């Protein structure tokens, strides 16, 4: 087991990892920018190192400075959390070359799954169902027109190196394909430095279903059920739940078995999430995230398994703690991402928190790094916390969530809490009847 882990992240996820480390008896090192000197993860770590000024490129993405922090503190492993360097294959390689363990999959698997074209090819080879689309990158506009015509409109043009909804455009007819290709290519180049595109069938009202997996890197793998992440705005998830209200036990077992066999064939190590679009009883692979997900707590709540603990154990060379037959899903869990944003315009709202009162009680978990008097800096993601609620049934969970949202007070800044109060009272949400387009339609008419 590792003796000291450096956490290459900030905010609630840095605290989440730190808690798992402490429960395993492992010392922790926090890194921070000058803007995060008063952050909770810095206050609670055993050691902390400032790695640069506020800009993420000069601090949380500064690999030489992070490596230096490892050497200064004697950290023998790095946990990257999510975002920042969590899916940077080069970072994993550099750490390994310097004798520091990367708590995550191999650089090879990060690289393969980080390229959407290669990920799709790999998924097909491993027996995972995929959305009909181009076999590789679109060579030029003529090639794009041909592929779209063969697939059949509507189609989705996507950045090969994309994420977060950037570089994605819908073409509903042949009249729209040229503009979609040009716009997606420009966005992809600006956002990722790579203008490679691919095209796939655009599904009408799919749900976003993702399967949580753990692999030991030696051919062993298990799944921990699925999460439904269909409530999204501009391809960004805001509400996640486990299990999905759209699946039954047979569907869950079917897609879980497919994913486990694929991870066994891949020799995958660590935690990962295989994401699908689901429509009319069929699953279509869209991507794999080779890291911990923001929404991992809902899986922990329904399985009772600490995913960060498992990540650390696997990275240290230990076998999987659980067999597939040990995994059971108990009740329902829902997570709401609390962002420092206007609940209607979603404009960021950095500033000082003048009063903070999180909810509590049975089945309630709040993952957050903020506190009363804390100043939210304007330099990073607007996520300030996650409210996770668990109940014996979905009805009980929704009732508990409603109560928690009424208790949750964050003054001094705007947050998305009022939006969740609306959603929890909506009949479609109560019935579990929503797709990935539901939220944007709701916001457009509300």
Question: TL;DR of this structure?
Answer:
The protein is of the alpha+beta class and 446 residues long.
- Class inferred from helices and paired strands: alpha+beta
> What would the principal axes of the Cα set say about the shape?
globular
Would you identify the CATH architecture of the largest domain? 2-Layer Sandwich
Highest-level CATH class of the largest domain? Alpha Beta
Number of domains: 3
CATH topology of the largest domain: D-amino Acid Aminotransferase, Chain A, domain 1
The number of helical elements comes to 15
Share of residues in helices? 25-40%
Number of strands: 20
User: Ends: how far apart?
Assistant: 52 Å
CATH superfamily caption of the largest domain = ATP-grasp fold, B domain
The percent range for strand residues is 25-35%
Residue stretches low in confidence (pLDDT < 50, at least 5 long) are: none
Major sheet: size, sense and barrel closure? 8 strands, antiparallel
Whole-number average pLDDT?
Answer: 95
Q: Tell me the quaternary state.
A: single chain
């Amino acid at each position: 087991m590792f003796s000291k882990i450096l956490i290459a992240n900030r905010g609630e996820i840095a605290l989440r990892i730190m808690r798992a480390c402490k429960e395993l008896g492992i010392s922790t090192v926090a890194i921070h920018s000058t803007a995060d000197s008063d952050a909770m993860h810095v206050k609670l770590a055993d050691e902390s190192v400032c790695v640069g000024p506020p800009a993420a490129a000069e601090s949380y993405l500064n690999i030489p400075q992070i490596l230096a922090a490892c050497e200064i503190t004697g950290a023998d492993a790095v946990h990257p959390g999510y975002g920042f360097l969590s899916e940077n294959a080069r970072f994993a390689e550099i750490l390994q070359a310097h004798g520091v363990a990367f708590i995550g999959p191999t650089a090879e698997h990060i690289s393969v799954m980080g390229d959407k074209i290669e990920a799709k090819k790999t998924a097909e080879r491993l027996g995972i169902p995929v959305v009909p689309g181009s076999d590789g990158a679109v060579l030029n506009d003529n090639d794009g027109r041909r592929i779209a015509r063969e697939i059949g409109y509507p189609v989705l043009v996507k950045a090969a190196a994309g994420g977060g909804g950037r570089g994605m455009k819908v073409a509903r007819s042949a009249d729209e394909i040229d503009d979609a290709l040009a716009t997606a290519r420009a966005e992809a180049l600006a956002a990722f430095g790579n203008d490679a595109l691919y095209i796939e069938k655009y599904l009408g009202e799919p749900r976003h279903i993702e399967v949580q997996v753990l692999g030991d890197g030696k051919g062993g793998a298990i799944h921990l059920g699925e999460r439904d992440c269909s409530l999204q705005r501009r391809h960004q998830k805001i509400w996640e739940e486990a299990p999905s209200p759209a699946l039954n036990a047979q569907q869950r077992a079917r897609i879980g078995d497919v994913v486990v066999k694929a991870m066994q064939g891949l020799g995958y190590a660590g935690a990962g999430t295989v994401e699908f679009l689901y429509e009319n009883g069929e699953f279509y692979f869209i991507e794999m995230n080779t890291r911990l997900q923001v929404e991992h707590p809902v899986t922990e709540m329904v399985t009772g398994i600490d995913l960060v603990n498992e990540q650390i154990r696997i990275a240290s060379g230990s076998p999987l703690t659980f067999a597939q037959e040990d995994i059971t899903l108990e009740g329902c869990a829902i997570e709401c991402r609390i962002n420092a944003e206007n609940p209607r315009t979603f404009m960021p709202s950095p500033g000082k928190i003048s009063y903070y009162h999180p909810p509590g009680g049975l089945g309630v978990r709040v993952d957050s790094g903020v506190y009363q008097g804390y100043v939210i800096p304007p330099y990073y993601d607007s996520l300030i916390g996650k409210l996770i609620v668990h109940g014996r049934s979905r009805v009980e969970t929704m009732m508990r969530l409603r109560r928690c949202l009424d208790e949750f007070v964050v003054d001094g800044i705007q947050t998305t809490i009022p939006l969740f109060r609306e959603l929890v009272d909506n009949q479609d949400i109560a019935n579990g009847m929503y797709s990935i387009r539901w939220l944007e339609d709701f916001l457009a008419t509300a």
